[in-house]
Amino acid sequence: MSLGQLLVYPLRGQGGVLSLLCAVGLYLLLLLFEWTRIDEGQHLLAAVMLPIPWLVTCMVFQHYAWASLSHVAAGNDETIRSIAIEDVSPLNNFLALKVTALLFGVAGLVVASFATEVVLGIGVAAVVGAVLPAVLGVIILEEAFLAGLHPRQVAGFVTGLGPAYGVFAVSLYAGIAALYVACVVVRPPSIFAMVVASYAFMLGHVLAGRVLYICRERLGLATLPEKDPVHVAAIADTKEIEALMVELHRHCAVDRVERANKLLEGFLERDGYVNDERIHQRLTLFHDKRLRLEHNWHYINRLLDAKKTVRAWSLVRESLDIDPMFRPASADATLSLVAVAPAVDAAYVDMLLNDFERAYADSERAAEGVIEHARWLVAKLERVDAALERIAVVEREFPEAADDPQFRSFREHVHKLAN
């Protein structure tokens, strides 16, 4: 998407009409509120009644802005073709209402901090200002309010964007600030200021979505097939790769999977593993899942070396779906992968860690893996009895780890939950 396309994106299609209608609606409500100032009784009634339709209009606008952000992040150059009212109405979708409550709470925290001490207020405002865009980004992408409150997901979002996080944050803040100025600062209300602010608000979200699209690989985002290099590579198999697939099929048909894997690894090594993702996609169509698991095992190690842990975790999930006994190469690799696993993947984490002390018996981190499993069982799966069994394993097989104060504190906490 070119710069020109980005600039006109908020003006095109049904979204442009919706933005204009929201701008006019907000302006009329603010104008009516100003008009009621001529009479104290009318003004008091307006102060009670008008914020409700004003907030509803803002939430409709916010839902569309978030949908546009996700739309652009997926690689779409065109605007959303059809806007269903149930998707943007706060009466059906309560996400904006929850975020509004969060923002009011955060604003109250900042104000209270300044009232207590200026230095404290500045510190709290700085922390909130740095973290809030990441929280909003996770909520928008996951379409789940609680996902934005998960520290690992927020940290993974910031790490995935890297230096681009600043651009993402500025884009969001600039759009929100423009709408805030038009609604709160400009007096009397100006239709021109409101329309310009609505455009800036949408443009800020579109630019933020474009930043996410550019960083999609590090964030592990799904994109349009025609925009996703992974998909393009998968459908653009060369004759050489097709010939390789035929040879691999021939070996696997007679149970020579190890030979097939050596042949595949040799092919990938020749080109510096640049075709890893391409081969992975091609193997999803391969009849022998054993070879796919062999390649996944090696590919996960290479992804971890390249610091693409989120993508590596998605391969672990695929592998566990094929074979629940699949395990990464080392204890370090497994714990690194579990560290980026979202809460919704708790069942996969449970599957991966339930025999950690046996799978990595020679590792110095064997006890750590068992304890981590117990933590997931309590916090994410609410299986206290299973957590107690894992704690018993630590006490029986890893007495040194059982003497650790943090472990003893955790054990006491679990026993309280059990009682």
Which residue ranges are poorly predicted, with pLDDT under 50 across at least 5 consecutive positions? none
Number of strands: 0
Coarse structural class: mainly alpha
Instruction: Report how far apart the termini are.
Output: 58 Å
Tell me what you see in this structure.
- The protein is mostly helical.
- Helix content is 75%, strand content 0%.
- The protein has helices at residues 3-8, 13-35, 40-49, 51-73, 85-88, 95-116, 118-142, 151-161, 164-185, 191-214, 216-219, 229-235, 239-253, 257-270, 276-283, 289-305, 309-322, 331-339, 346-353, 356-359, 366-379, 384-397, 399-402, 405-418.
- Helix 9 (164-185) packs antiparallel against helix 10 (191-214) and helix 21 packs antiparallel against helix 22 (384-397).
- The mean pLDDT is 85.
Relevant terms:
single chain, 419 residues, globular
Short description:
The protein has helices at residues 3-8, 13-35, 40-49, 51-73, 85-88, 95-116, 118-142, 151-161, 164-185, 191-214, 216-219, 229-235, 239-253, 257-270, 276-283, 289-305, 309-322, 331-339, 346-353, 356-359, 366-379, 384-397, 399-402, 405-418. The chain has 419 residues and is an all-alpha fold.
Write the layout of secondary structure elements.
Elements: H1 3-8, H2 13-35, H3 40-49, H4 51-73, H5 85-88, H6 95-116, H7 118-142, H8 151-161, H9 164-185, H10 191-214, H11 216-219, H12 229-235, H13 239-253, H14 257-270, H15 276-283, H16 289-305, H17 309-322, H18 331-339, H19 346-353, H20 356-359, H21 366-379, H22 384-397, H23 399-402, H24 405-418
Helix pairs in contact: 2-4, 2-10, 4-10, 6-7, 7-8, 7-9, 9-10, 12-15, 13-14, 14-16, 15-16, 16-17, 19-21, 21-22, 22-24
